[in-house]
């Protein structure tokens, strides 16, 4: 499985994904699920993928080919030259549609699932920061003020902390802490989600990545956060009143 | 959906269930999912059910009929007169099998799911305290020292706190707090799980219920626990080091 989470707060966008992929319990591999695209000072975009890996890799290949082709022929539309973030989501959705159209029936004939979903987060100069969730059918929804985060993959373990912490006015620092804590809970409770992690932070109106880093299993800051959270939970739990009289 | 959680620690057994049942998002009802059976000073048993309601109600009816019949004819075996807790789990599994055999194919023809699972927890005089999970096929597994808790239904939201807190040496007080906190996280993140709750506590070697109570939405102790946990999480989160430098 997979766990990807993206948050849109007033100050910017935070995206975090794990790297574990499995085809059955005995076939575990490591694949990057976060992909970044940028034109410095003009736009910065992160995609995060879950679901059938052949489908999402195909979508990525199509988007990449359009970017390459557009360098030779500027009339060709790509996620790096299209007009708006909304159009970026459409292009991702269109590529998803094409992959599903081509492979879905044969994948399902083999008894596998072809579903996939992709989070699209970013901002282009002249537009607002946007966060979209693109479904298998190519349709998509946008994160709003009421729902400032999206999760794909194994989302349930890490949802309670996001429900409690993340609001649109949450700082970028707290949003980053929140997605890391959310991931930490998921890593502890579900073997199909695994280190290392890929973290991207896009500050509002900067049109570039403030953070674009891989967090390895031995990363000291993440370990401190994880241990600190464990200790805080334990302490908080101990301090709770006893219900059993 | 449903969320039921049962913990077996050295000091005893703790069982907690919600009461929300739904057939689609627009058809929500309230049904008890915890059922208790006892012969004072000899045995105390709690069953908790999830899955297809007609199946689990049918299982419960069969178990109840055997108890009634055995009062007239002591040769008839029931969960209140059978030899061991292991045999109790077998009887529950046998009833499950019979219900599945009778209804599964017709239920599935209608496009519904017939799956169900039942947690069986208790102790009889002369035996150890036991916790079993009975599947749709009537087969079952037992909680061991390595895995001192079972969850059925919407289990993911509330798993992280159990993973961190519950060990076989956890006190009965802490185990009770832990299942309530686990339920609180689930209630906040999933609409298909709802108040009121049914809590049962069986202390080791007492062969009776120490607690057998319904916790309503306005229960002050539960509200305090819930608020306390919220505050502890928030405080713990604030105290975590910033990762975004």
TrEMBL record, chains A, B:
Write out the GO biological process terms: proteolysis involved in protein catabolic process
Which Pfam families does the entry link to? Proteasome (PF00227)
Q: Which SUPFAM superfamilies match?
A: N-terminal nucleophile aminohydrolases (Ntn hydrolases)
Annotated keywords: Hydrolase, Protease, Proteasome
The reply to whether Protease figures as a keyword in the UniProt entry is: yes
GO MF term list = peptidase activity
Q: Matching InterPro entries, A to Z?
A: Ntn_hydrolases_N, Proteasome_sua/b, UCP009120_prtse
Q: Could you name the Gene Ontology cellular component terms for this entry?
A: proteasome core complex
Domain of life assignment: Bacteria
Q: What is this protein called?
A: Putative proteasome-type protease
Q: Which organism is it from?
A: Sphingobium vermicomposti
